[in-house]
Amino acid sequence: MRTAVEIADARAEKLGHQLYAGRARAIIERASIALRSSTWVPIATGFIEPVLYLLAFGYGMGTLIGDISTSSGAVDYTIFIAPGLLATSAMNGAIYDSTWNVFFKLNESKLYQGMLATPLGPLDVALGEIIWALIRGLSYAVAFMLITAPLGLVPSWGAIFAIPAAVLIAFGFASFGMAITSYFKTYQQMGLINVALLPMFLFSGSLYPITVYPDWLEFTIKLLPTWHGIELIRDIWFGVIDFSSLSHISYFVVMIVLGLFFTTRRLRDLFMR
Amino acid sequence: MSESLISARGLTKKYGDFTAVDGIDFDVAKGESFGLLGPNGAGKSTTMRIIAATSRRTSGTISILGRDPEEHGPQVRAHLGVVPQQDNLDTELTVAENLYIYGRYFGLSKKFVKGKVDELLSFAQLEEKKDVKVEALSGGMKRRLTIARALVSEPDILMLDEPTTGLDPQARHILWDRLFRLKEDGVTLIITTHFMDEAEQLCDRLVVMDKGKIMAEGSPAELIKKYSTKEVLEVRFGSDRNKEVAPILHKMCDRIEELPDRILMYVEDGEKLLEEIVAKKLHPNTSLVRRSSLEDVFLRLTGRSLIE
Fold this sequence. Notes:
The complex is a heterodimer of chains A (273) and B (308).
Chain A: H1 4-11, H2 24-36, H3 41-65, E1 67-70, E2 73-76, H4 77-98, H5 100-107, H6 111-115, H7 122-148, H8 162-183, H9 187-203, H10 215-221, H11 225-237, H12 243-271
Chain B: E1 4-15, E2 18-29, E3 33-37, H1 44-51, E4 59-64, H2 73-79, E5 80-83, H3 95-105, H4 110-123, H5 139-150, E6 157-161, H6 169-184, E7 188-193, H7 196-202, E8 205-210, E9 213-218, H8 220-227, E10 231-236, H9 239-252, E11 255-258, E12 263-267, H10 270-279, E13 286-291, H11 294-302
Parallel strand pairs in B: 3-7, 3-8, 5-6, 6-7
Antiparallel strand pairs in B: 1-2, 1-4, 8-9, 10-12, 10-13, 11-12
Helix pairs in contact in B: 3-4, 3-5, 5-6, 8-11
């Protein structure tokens, strides 16, 4: 049995030991204990939303639209929107835990203050919370896949790679979401996240190709993470992996790194001034 | 004094132009119960955070078990149990889960922590509440849980920032009893408080802080002896007459303090002085002879009463 001091001493030689104790899993363990007694309603609604879009737009509106032409030929409208909505599922799941829940822990329950009074470092907290958020994103994506596959909306086995891609997307959103949240002080500021997300989802090519826009707007949309996420999943869905897929992946890698960096820095500034 | 666990020299913390801690020196010995006494804003909590390796000093030196908290933050924190001023318990978890997960933050094994949880539930007298969410606990129970939580890693030093502020008298006494036990077990306690009785009860030695500086240092008895008299006579003439009689009282006693509601007279023999006052036909509305306390020391040192 090692004591708390021996555990900390063993870590002390490692690079970055002030920021990271190598125990993000303790934060994940905490979240999984908390989940047991939490209410399932918000968890379910976060998942149901994209399914409702699939029903309303795919099976409702879709019957009026018929096929839609893409770079890989004409596809049924419902099949066209399915990957976009899977990406949205992953984003929703990641955003839920990394924004409002983090805001509560930062400002109401002062939970991170308690965690950082232990040998844990800010990167343990950031990484633990972000990984937990991405697990939710991942489970939404998997559930969405399980619903769409029997409906014949998944064109090939290759589409299974949409799942690891969803992890990447969820990681990016969770990481960035937590970073932004850590700088927010009021509920009004937090409200901006919701205000920004809905249009980002609606106009980033989830429901129709962004080629319908004038050039300047198309260019602007291409800067948004929602567009990169939707495009990445759609590339995999239809098996058209190319250079642009790589650019989407790089986009999320950068987002993850930036989010982790700023979250860690902000937690350190807040609780270890 | 035996080996010192904590040693600070010229410790200073500035927030912009504001100096929260202004060049203080102190040592804490192993097994000692050390108090930081002072009004709100005196720099007590800031000093605590620097010791706890959750705040960076502006200048000066500090060593905790021979280590600089800025270089070895996680190692220093592994030695400490921290009870913050405001409870920051995990409201999403139960009492037992709070204890368990806190042990896990230190990297302790599941098996060890599970055994520890039962022991701490008993220490905090919370066995019956173990599966209750913390929101449902009373203030005193939350405080005991926070202390129990701080003990999960078997720390050498327990840091308590105003442990009983906001508790009713009964809850305070239960808490003091728990802290006595820890002291008996050899845990070094560092306590901030603005309650004199608490400092007298719990602290072997204390420093009186005001505006970031240490005004005096010693055991409660030493401080009282040095800065106050044996007894204090408190007299009240009513707020209008207090001013009127004060000059007369001044002549009867070396040191008096006029507070808004009463006059304090510092003497060796309070009863005798009271007889003299009555003999002069200055009948106070109420009078009280009591032993000097740390409150009097503070008043002497700063000219202000402690809780304003």
